[in-house]
Write a structure and sequence with these properties.
Layout (H helix, E strand, L loop, with lengths): L1 H22 L7 E8 L2 E8 L33 E5 L3 E3 L2 E3 L2 E9 L5 E6 L21 E25 L5 E18 L2
Antiparallel strand pairs: 1-2, 2-3, 3-6, 4-5, 4-9, 6-7, 7-8, 8-9
Length: about 190
């Protein structure tokens, strides 16, 4: 399994490196890769980190319900859709996510609820239907999972994702921005 994971990881990194070079002029947000080992399974996320402030004007933007509209699918970051890579299968809210690479999308709602969408297609840029080979395809969804919403005391200026160990076992995926933190626990499928 480790050889398969390393081969997959090499392909994904090569793909995203090439995409990054092609998209370099279009990017306005820094990108980050986070990687954590949970119960001997490496889980990695590659994502763009937009700011609350508009990078062109410095104007403070309303994030939830503004920059990220309610009721519309968001790429969970900036630029390319957020990439999730797991070395072993993980279980999120009763859904098995096999080892491999996926994109993460978010569907926020006006009532404060949100869904995490795990999509089997990788390499999408956004939602533009004029670029179907490069856009989100709902038919490729593996799962739509309810996220827990926790208000934050302090505002987060730059979109931040984290993978943390869960004290009760497994891990927790967290998405924080403005005064909102969405999260969902997961376990490693044995």
């Amino acid at each position: 399994m480790n050889k398969l994971f390393l081969a997959l990881l090499t392909i994904v990194i090569t793909f995203f490196s090439a995409a990054a070079l092609m998209a370099q002029q279009k990017r306005l947000s820094p990108h980050e890769t986070i990687s954590t080992v949970i119960d001997r399974n490496r889980v990695m996320i590659v994502y763009g980190r937009p700011y609350t402030k508009n990078p062109r004007t410095g104007e403070v933007r309303k994030v939830w319900g503004g920059l990220v509209p309610f009721g519309k699918i968001w790429r969970t970051g900036a630029d390319e859709a957020t990439l999730l890579i797991t070395q072993q299968p993980i279980l999120i809210a009763g859904t098995t996510v096999p080892a491999g690479a996926y994109t993460l999308w978010t569907l926020p709602n006006e009532d404060g609820s949100a869904k995490l969408i795990i999509n089997k297609q990788i390499g999408q840029w956004g939602m533009d239907p004029r670029e179907p080979s490069n856009a989100y395809d709902e038919k490729q969804d593996l799962a739509r999972i309810d996220l827990k919403n926790d208000p934050l005391d302090n505002s987060v200026d730059q979109f931040t994702m984290a993978i943390e160990k869960n004290p009760s076992g497994g891990g927790i995926l967290k998405l924080s921005w403005e005064k909102t933190q969405f999260s969902v626990p997961f376990t490693i499928q044995k």
